[in-house]
Design goal:
78 residues, mainly alpha, 2 domains, 33% helix, 0% strand, globular, glycoprotein, golgi apparatus
């Protein structure tokens, strides 16, 4: 897959360093819109990762930053 991101021509190489970034390359590289989130954790050691994810998702859905999804049919939006 060739990167068409002219601002960051080495993005494909950098993302190839970690398998977790494969998701970005497949699903988000050619996205029409992107958002950036800044998280500030005051006690990251004692806060479970799932609790952080739940808060981020609920906030983004509540404020309509992300589309709602149907968990029974992940390929469709509500």
């Amino acid at each position: 897959m060739e990167s068409n991101n002219k601002s960051f021509p080495s993005t494909k190489w950098l993302l190839g360093l970690k398998a977790g970034f494969f998701y970005y390359e497949v699903h988000l590289l050619n996205a029409i819109q992107r958002i950036g989130l800044q998280l500030k954790l005051f006690n990251p050691v004692s806060t479970p990762h799932q609790a952080i994810m739940d808060l981020v998702l609920s906030c983004t859905l509540k404020n309509k930053i992300l589309s709602q999804i149907d968990l029974q049919n992940p390929l469709s939006c509500i």
